[in-house]
Design goal:
The complex is a heterotrimer of chains A (about 600), B (about 400) and C (about 170). By secondary structure, chain A is of the alpha+beta class. Chain A has 23 helices and 15 strands. In chain A, strand 11 and strand 12 form a beta hairpin. In chain A, helix 1 runs parallel beside helix 2, helix 9 runs antiparallel to helix 10 and helix 12 runs antiparallel to helix 13. The radius of gyration of chain A is 24 Å and the shape is globular. Chain B has about 400 residues and is mainly alpha-helical. Chain B has one domain. Chain B is about 65% helix and about 5% strand. Chain B is built from twelve helices and four strands. Chain C is mainly alpha-helical. In chain C, helix 1 packs antiparallel against helix 2 and helix 2 runs antiparallel to helix 3. Chains A and B meet through strand 8, helix 11, helix 12, helix 14 and helix 22 of A and helix 5, helix 8, helix 10, helix 11 and helix 12 of B.
């Protein structure tokens, strides 16, 4: 379908029919639509409900601020049809001050995604059930991802100047007018419990216990705050408060050149930083139109899978720790230590390696690298068997995980859940197989799936994924091609050191590439990758310059976390801990 | 010297000796626990303070005492201050009835190596209270107060949940704990701990064989009663931060900490007394060496507790309750019934019959319980939700 | 005074003072806490009367189970449901009631027990029972002459237990 044609409210049925006609053809596998903002809701509903189309998975809603143009905001919807593997983009233009109809009635996870758009851009959504800030504090003034919102130079609040800072005082005045300290102490519990979660207040009025779990709680993997309404110890409702480590990476990236912004991505999913690098460079390379040599591709895949194992080991450790098996935690970290040694040998850094760059890798693998990876492949499988022996058939472990946190496949898709949790519902959906990127189509591996979609099945799926990753690493190592590990376009990657002595051009590039950066053709691109937590991808909008105009991360945990109340209702407080462990979210990636 | 003063003097010396023994066991236990756990978890454990880190518990104690004692603003100060003592005092009192050795004779006076004893007039040293084991159980039930009151007075929801869980847990597990001990008591024919030990020496067999089931139930219920892993729910740090002692710091926290370890030693001591022959070996040995055998048996149990902690995940609160009421209690009652029947119908060679029956019963119970836990008690989802989803790969494009 | 009498005075004082606190303290949880001390005192009295078994049972059942349940109820109600329960007893009423109780008690004691004067001596002069006598005697008493009341009592408790389960059980549609 020609994406220049604007769909209006009246032409929605025709547009849906036209999409349906192309559903089976290669053209229909990836489509772009432009829609009038009034047409969004009917169009989305038609695309979702039509049995021939079944766009049942909303991957992302995000916006771009076209500052100084009108209509100012461009809102992008991206949806998939699972398991057919068809993708669809919809873009719509929204002028300042106007609203779009919400699509929460079509896909549940639109709730948080729209809240984020509202929080970051100030674009409002009509009929949204609960349109409040999500990442920024409730007292924040302004919408940070707007181009006219300043970056930096904000005054930091300390005791000496706390009254001078407007937002805080304004917030206190609004919510707790004229409260003195004694009263604050008296009502402190109430204030803390319902800060940013006024919707839970109704349960306390009904005489239930409302329990704050987090943000400083040992089992919330960082700084997630879950507000639980309890009947005894049984959960009747839950809400989450996120954004405690929101560091504005998407905003910061807009002021950095592409290579510099790369280092920010390490800090998002800090458990598997190389995967973020990988996901970030792919859309940029797509915009640049470069092809990475096979050796670079294979090394990328190998590092990616080693990261996945490392991430799953942390998941295993913390999951078991939260259920009281402390030893597994330390075993997991012992094995991850070898992986960190591998990364250290590679880059000198243990975690924030930034090793996968636009155009390939930063450098080739050093001497001894393959030996160390071989060593890991030798010792690790038997240890994995030990962990199976300690947990898989352990009655207590079975008691704690079987039948806990059930999530039906329909709900999982509706909430935009991807990764191992979606696979545990029995759906073999893996981006590496569906839309192979890099060189994944050349590797042999299986997609483990579960049957019961509970905590135990997620455990089994992830444990099996570790084995599959080992298989991939093994293949990558044995089939590693010779050749260059990166492209040879020295406007993008640094020229080799020895060329500087003989080539003036190389010298110039060697100066320009790190300081000024490289130009990326104008346009936008998004590539999905499979992170340990699900579908991760970066949406890069370029205006033709050397800095991203907009960088957006589709973070898997952000969507998955929304389904937490659904999974935990009817269970006990102790089960929330098990469920959180099985969700395996990384707050750095949720809050960004 | 009046007789009563001699009695008091002897008991005073015993108090000092036994208390000193216990007070050395506790730091040693803390050190041992950290070392063993570290070994299980491929770490080094404490190794900075003293040789092999042996002085680490002392350093910890000094650190805890020197810390600031914080009382949060909204607590009930009176109860908040009392709670740690309510936990610690019963824990220490229970030491009194545990015999660490047999009857020692000095001159013409003989007395038992234990703190508790009654003076009933001239010439009548009763070696111990008639109802020795009842006192241990009674005192362990007093420990609930420390937990429930600290949970309530802390003005913290997590503490309160911890206190609630704990009181329910301790109340529930007292029953199987007590009933499990009735079997050995029936065989011994006395409630006195000394008598139980001597009975085992007379029969020439430790009660762990004829009362294998009771032993297992006692050990597991005891673990729950003293809140040790895998039943450490009241303080489950991954769910309830620290449970009932979240808000405590400094010396008051040290009191909770100490009470837990003292309880652990006490439960191990009772287990050693009832099932491993207490202070006696099979043959008659020197009385003054008996405390050594006792401590060795005690250490075996302590090691077991530590080992379990390093291996197993934690059970959930409702599963724990289910286990206590639906499994441990009926099984313990069944064991009691079998023991009673054997004693009633085979008075001649009771212990031989009971040993065979007990061992068979133990094996049967082991398999029965394993089956029940793995297949029977598992929480089931409501039928409406229990849809088995078939794995599909058909729709996925390769 | 003999050692025995000193011990009796101390235990009796603890029992009585705690009992008064149970009645007059406005904070119901603290009142329950003093109930624990009262029971402990009673247990101490049993020990002084050479009834160790009864003392142990007093601690095990009254303190270890019954008062814990009372406290459990208080803690759950007061803290979780937000209802603040205050004890209704007024000190004024206690002052009026105290002489009445004392007179009544003295009358009862005069009638049923031997005169106060000889009470202490009676206990001290009681023949010291032989080792392990009381428990065996108790068991024989319970299972031989008093077996019917004993069994009846357990039957009543069983009935109460079943009743409690019936009441507590949720009605299923």
């Amino acid at each position: 379908m020609n994406n220049n044609e604007l769909i209006t409210r009246d032409t929605v049925p025709e547009a849906a029919r036209s999409v349906a006609e192309k559903a089976g053809t290669p053209e229909g596998r990836e489509m772009f639509l432009r829609a009038d903002k009034d047409a969004i809701l009917p169009l989305c509903r038609a695309l979702h409900d039509d049995p021939a189309l079944k766009y049942n998975f909303l991957s992302d809603i995000t916006a771009v601020d076209l500052y100084k143009q009108e209509p100012r905001f461009e809102i992008v919807y991206r949806m998939y049809s699972i398991p057919d593997g068809r993708r669809l983009w919809i873009k719509t233009a929204v002028p300042t001050g106007e609203e779009v109809e919400t699509v929460t009635s079509v896909w549940k996870n639109a709730d948080w995604l729209e809240r984020e758009v509202y929080d970051m851009f100030g674009a409002r959504f009509t009929n949204h059930p609960d349109l409040r800030r999500i990442l920024m504090p409730a007292n924040w003034i302004g919408h940070p991802l707007r181009k006219d919102h300043p970056l930096g130079n904000e005054e930091v609040q300390f005791t000496i100047n706390k009254d001078d800072i407007v937002p805080q005082t304004a917030f206190l005045n609004e919510h707790f007018e004229g409260m003195d300290f004694a009263e604050y102490v008296e009502r402190g519990d109430e204030i803390n419990t319902f800060y940013g979660a006024a919707n839970m207040r109704k349960y306390e009025q009904e005489g239930r216990i409302v329990l704050n779990m987090g943000p400083q709680h040992p089992s919330t993997h960082g700084v997630l705050r879950v507000i639980l309404a309890l009947e005894g110890e049984t959960i009747i409702d839950a809400d989450q408060d996120i954004g405690y480590i929101h560091t504005g990476i998407e905003k910061t990236a807009e002021s950095l050149i592409y290579q510099q912004a790369l280092t920010l991505t390490d800090r998002m999913d800090y458990v598997a930083p190389l995967m973020n690098n990988f996901a970030y460079v792919l859309p940029i390379e797509k915009l640049l139109g470069v092809e990475i040599p096979p050796r670079g591709q294979f090394l990328r895949v190998m590092l990616n899978e080693l990261s996945r194992i490392g991430s799953h080991l942390i998941w295993l450790g913390t999951h078991a720790l939260e259920l009281g098996a402390v030893s597994i935690f330390l075993y997991g970290f012992r094995d991850r230590e070898i992986l960190l040694d591998i990364f250290e040998l590679l880059s000198g850094q243990r975690m924030m390696t930034s090793w996968i760059n636009v155009g390939g890798l930063r450098d080739d693998i050093p001497e001894g690298f393959t030996d160390l990876v071989r060593y890991f492949l030798d010792v690790f499988p038997s240890r994995l068997d030990d962990y199976h022996a300690l947990l898989t058939k352990n009655p207590i472990w079975l008691e704690r995980t079987k039948g806990i946190g059930y999530l039906s496949r329909e709900d999982a898709l509706n909430y935009g859940v991807s990764g191992p949790i979606l696979r545990a519902t029995g759906l073999a959906w893996d981006v590496r197989k569906v839309w192979p990127y890099s060189a994944y189509e050349e590797f042999e591996f299986d997609i483990p799936t579960g049957e019961n979609s509970d905590v135990y099945d997620r455990y089994l799926v992830r444990m099996e994924e570790i084995r599959q990753s080992l298989r991939i690493v093994e293949q990558a190592l044995s089939k590693l091609p010779e050749g260059n590990y990166r492209i040879e376009d020295y406007k993008i990657v640094l020229p080799p050191r020895q060329r500087l002595d003989v080539s003036m051009e190389a010298l110039i590039h060697h100066f320009l590439v790190p300081t000024h950066g490289f130009f990326v053709p104008a346009g936008d691109a998004y590539v999905s990758t499979e992170s340990p937590r699900g579908e991760m991808g970066f949406y890069i909008v370029s205006d033709g310059g050397t800095k991203p105009y907009r960088m957006r991360m589709r973070s898997p945990s952000f969507s998955t976390l929304q389904s937490l109340p659904l999974m935990s209702k009817g269970h006990l407080v102790a089960d929330v801990v098990a469920i959180l462990g099985s969700v395996d979210m990384i707050m750095g990636e949720v809050d960004r | 010297m009046p007789e009563i003063l001699v009695f008091l003097l002897i008991k005073l010396i015993l108090v000092i000796v036994i208390f000193a023994l216990w007070m050395t066991m506790v730091p040693l236990l803390i050190w041992l626990e950290r070392k063993v756990i570290a070994d299980i978890q491929v770490r080094l454990g404490p190794n900075r303070v003293g040789p092999f880190g042996l002085l680490q518990p002392i350093a910890d104690a000094i650190k805890l005492i020197m810390k600031e004692d914080i009382t949060p603003a909204l607590v009930d100060k009176w109860v908040y201050g009392l709670a740690p003592a309510m936990l610690m005092v019963p824990a220490f009192l229970a030491i009194a009835v545990i015999p660490i050795g047999g009857v020692v004779t000095i001159g013409e006076r003989s007395f038992a190596l234990q703190i508790m004893g009654l003076y009933r007039g001239p010439g009548l040293f009763v070696p111990e209270l008639d109802a020795g084991i009842l006192l241990v159980l009674a005192l362990s039930s007093l420990g609930v107060y420390g937990v429930v009151l600290s949970g309530w007075s802390s003005a913290n929801k997590y503490s309160l949940l911890g206190g609630m869980r704990s009181s329910a847990q301790m109340l529930s597990y007292e029953l199987p704990l007590g009933v499990a001990l009735v079997g050995p008591l029936l065989l011994a024919g006395t409630l006195r701990l000394n008598g139980v030990v001597e009975a085992q020496a007379d029969y020439g067999i430790w009660f762990i064989v004829p009362q294998l089931v009771a032993f297992a139930i006692f050990l597991m219920s005891g673990t729950a009663e003293i809140n040790r892993s895998p039943f450490d729910l009241p303080e489950a740090e991954q769910e309830l931060i620290g449970g009932y002692h979240t808000e405590y710091s400094s010396f008051r926290f040290a009191m909770f900490f100490m009470a837990e370890y003292v309880n652990m030693v006490t439960i191990s001591a009772v287990a050693a007394t009832f099932f491993l022959g207490g202070y006696r070996l099979f043959f008659n040995d020197i009385v003054w060496l008996q405390p050594v055998w006792f401590v060795l048996k005690l250490m075996a149990f302590l090691y077991l507790f530590i080992w379990v902690r390093g291996t197993l995940p934690r059970v959930r609160y409702d599963q724990l309750m289910k286990l206590g009421w639906k499994v441990f209690l009926p099984v313990a009652l069944g064991n009691l019934l079998v023991t009673g029947l054997v004693i009633a119908f085979s008075p001649a060679n009771t212990i031989l019959v009971m040993s065979i029956v007990g061992a068979l019963l133990g094996i049967a119970t082991f398999f029965g319980l394993s089956y029940a836990i793995v297949y029977g008690l598992r929480r089931r989802r409501p039928e409406s939700e229990r849809r088995v989803v078939e794995p599909t790969r058909a729709g996925v494009s390769e | 005074m003999t050692l025995h009498q000193i011990a009796f005075a101390a235990v009796a004082a603890v029992t009585l003072i705690s009992a008064v606190f149970v009645v007059i303290l406005p904070n119901i949880l603290r009142a329950a806490l003093f109930l624990v001390f009262t029971f402990l005192g009673v247990a101490g009295l049993y020990v002084l009367l050479n009834a160790e078994f009864l003392a142990a049972m007093q601690v095990l059942i009254y303190i270890g189970a019954i008062t814990v349940l009372i406290m459990f109820g208080i803690v759950l109600t007061q803290q979780l449901m937000g209802a603040r329960i205050r004890q209704a007893t007024q000190v004024r009423m206690v002052v009026i009631a105290l002489p009445v109780v004392l007179i009544a008690f003295a009358g009862l004691a005069k009638t049923f027990i031997r005169p106060f004067a000889s009470a202490g001596e009676h206990v001290a002069a009681a023949p010291a029972p032989v080792d392990a006598g009381t428990l065996h005697q108790l068991a024989r008493m319970l299972l031989q002459p008093y077996v019917l009341p004993f069994e009846l009592a357990s039957l009543i408790l069983l009935a109460a237990l079943v009743g409690a389960i019936v009441i507590a059980k949720e009605e299923k549609d």
